[in-house]
Automatic annotation (TrEMBL):
InterPro entries for the chain: DUF7380
Name of this chain's protein: DUF7380 domain-containing protein
Pfam families: DUF7380 (PF24098)
Residue stretches making up the DUF7380 domain: 83-190
Domain of life of the native organism: Bacteria
């Protein structure tokens, strides 16, 4: 229900009677000034001049600012600033409800500082808008002022104000204004006709929308001017899901096939799917056109990276949309894509002698191979201290904030796209993994050298001797795990690095699983639908270990070394993507295996959860059960 107000002779409401601008003076959002009706003609001429020949709505406020800089001093600066800001409001399309699509002037309300929300405009600014709406002559200016008067209900007769706004918007079509602005103006005119039920103007507006859209589609130009107009014209009826304008629906199908860039086709395909209702054939057709547009760009790409980029998008979208044959076509294309011409910058670094000396000195002073191995299984997490690594990652992220705005694609296994990273959190996690990987590389060299000491200074122990040593360090260690670790260590000492990691890596997950079973954690998932019952993988087990006080430094080492966030070594080994294993990676894998094997007891009944949890807290201390 509207407030009562007296009407001025011109048919506009008394602005002070409006409720919208209450308390604006106290908010400090705009400086007040005394509106002088005697200057209306001069201000209108300023606005009309700024609108003349404007090819973009963004030009109008800038022109007003530049022209007003030379205006006589009797013009209030606050009035000139308010006049300029009038054209900083933007038409925005939004789907307010499933069957309510409209274009509105924004910001209407809220916390916007610039431009000031329309509903927060001061009384003087409102008087300025009302006064100028009656005298400006250029269609752009008439449309803007009439729309504001209509939107804020400043006129005594809202239907007449809306009608003036609609006619002015229609006059902007076909002029010098950009096609994008013309399209938005048409949608706004259409929105007003629906809001106040102006059936005669609605028919005229729809005719203009059809002519505008058909011309753009036939010329295959300005798709983003066409899209909001089609979105409006193909809205369903108030009752039922059938589009109320069949001619517009046919234009939408033509637009889907008219444009070629895949990002444009995607927008039209999404609109077709929203308007298709239960028509599955139409939905599938739109999805096929969308995916085929990406496949066409892949075929046109000239380099391996471009081909892979488009094919990865095509495969992902096709799977999401249920177009399986095109998904498989894209995936086969990925497998056959030309190689990527990577630019590799090689560098060598030598671990400083001071670092090597500090680490190796205690190993070199060892009197027996048992002493060397005892020191080796007591070393800290090769990835380093997680707190220090986080500080390093945070500094690297802050040094290059633009990276958070970019999409980073990780390629693995035969130059295949693996993961997309976007946003500040993803960049931080990538830098964290990078810092940890560097630490692992250095520590892996040292761990490998320490194991080599056993072979170089002592005879290679037998498998029985190694197993006996392992079981002496943790008297109740699970015998099959102790035996596997002994075999893997001996293979390493014989230089059979690949065999060593193929034996050791699976035991890491097995030991993690066994530890959680000791802790009575739920790690088995029963069948759901077509998915068989299964134990959780390592990626899902690590959080459960952390909930039981697993050392965070070691958790990060396992995650970065073995899982896809980092080196993904577990997956590469399991699926045969590693042709040759060097001693550094073999030593890192053995260290991960030894850590969990030595704290995994054999019989669950003999140990309470607290004992197992204490081993997780300081795993490199090798608690003897």
């Amino acid at each position: 229900m509207e407030e009562s107000s007296s009407a001025s002779p011109s048919g506009y409401r008394d602005v002070p009677a409006q409720r919208d601008h209450a308390n604006i003076e106290a908010s400090g959002t705009a400086a007040a000034y005394g509106f002088d009706p005697g200057q209306t003609a001069e201000l209108a001429a300023l606005v009309d001049g700024a609108c003349e020949g404007a090819e973009d709505m963004y030009l109008v406020p800038d022109r007003i600012r530049r022209t007003s800089a030379g205006m006589p001093p009797e013009f209030d600066p606050n009035a000139l600033r308010g006049l300029s800001a009038t054209f900083d409001y933007r038409l925005t399309c939004e789907q307010e409800r499933p069957k309510r699509f409209a274009a509105t002037l924004q910001p209407m309300e809220g916390d916007s500082e610039f431009p000031q929300p329309l509903r927060q405009a001061s009384e003087d600014i409102r008087q300025l808008w009302v006064g100028l709406e009656q005298v400006v002559t250029h269609p752009i200016a008439r449309a803007r002022f009439a729309d504001i008067v209509f939107s804020l209900r400043l006129a005594d007769n809202s239907r007449e104000a809306g009608s003036r706004a609609i006619r002015a918007y229609l006059e902007t079509v076909g002029g010098e204004l950009s096609r994008l602005d013309q399209g938005m103006n048409l949608v706004r005119a259409w929105s007003i006709t629906r809001e106040v039920a102006l059936s005669e103007l609605e028919a005229e507006t729809i005719d203009a929308m059809l002519v505008f859209t058909e011309a753009r589609v036939d010329a295959k130009e300005e798709p983003y001017a066409v899209l909001p107009v089609l979105q409006a014209m193909t809205m369903p009826r108030a009752k039922g899901g059938t589009p109320w304008l069949p001619a517009a629906n046919a234009l939408l199908e033509r637009a889907l096939l008219a444009y070629h860039p895949s990002h444009v086709v995607k927008n039209f395909a999404e609109l077709v799917r929203r308007r298709a209702g239960d028509d599955q054939a139409r939905i599938e057709h739109a999805s096929r056109v969308q995916v085929q547009a990406v496949l066409a760009e892949a075929e046109a790409a000239k380099d391996g990276m471009g081909v892979r980029h488009h094919l990865e998008i095509a495969a992902t979208e096709a799977r999401r949309l249920g177009i399986i044959d095109l998904a498989e076509q894209a995936e086969v294309g990925l497998q056959q894509a030309p190689p990527i011409e990577w630019v590799v910058e090689e560098f060598e670094f030598k671990v400083p002698d001071a670092v090597t000396g500090r680490f190796m000195r205690s190993f070199e002073l060892a009197q027996t191979w048992q002493d060397v191995l005892a020191l080796w299984i007591s070393t800290d997490a090769p990835s380093g201290d997680v707190a220090s690594n986080r500080e390093t990652a945070r500094a690297a992220t802050e040094a290059s904030p633009i990276r958070s705005l970019m999409t980073n694609v990780t390629y693995r296994d035969g130059d295949m796209p693996s993961r997309k990273l976007t946003g500040s959190d993803a960049v931080f996690n990538q830098e964290l993994a990078r810092a940890e990987t560097l630490s692992m590389t250095v520590r892996g060299v040292l761990l490998a050298q320490a194991l080599e000491l056993i072979k170089n200074r002592f005879a290679i122990p037998t498998e029985v001797e190694l197993e006996t040593f392992i079981r002496s360090r943790a008297k109740d260690v699970h015998p099959p795990y102790a035996r596997a670790l002994a075999k893997a260590l001996r293979l390493f000492l014989f230089g059979e690095f690949e065999a060593a990691v193929h034996l050791a890596v699976p035991k890491i997950e097995a030991a993690a699983r066994a530890l959680l079973l000791h802790l009575n954690e739920p790690i088995y998932r029963t069948q759901v639908g077509d998915t068989d019952g299964h134990f959780l993988g390592l990626g899902a087990l690590l959080p459960l270990l952390c909930e039981n006080d697993f050392d965070p430094n070691w958790e990060r080492y396992f995650r970065t070394f073995l899982l896809s966030e980092g080196s993904n070594f577990r997956n590469l080994i399991a699926h045969g993507f590693v042709d040759e294993v060097d001693p550094v990676y073999a030593a890192l894998a053995l260290r991960a295996c030894a850590l969990l094997v030595l704290i995994t007891p054999s019989a669950p009944a003999r140990h309470d959860a607290d004992t197992v949890r204490s081993a997780l807290t300081q795993p490199h201390a090798t608690v003897a059960f």
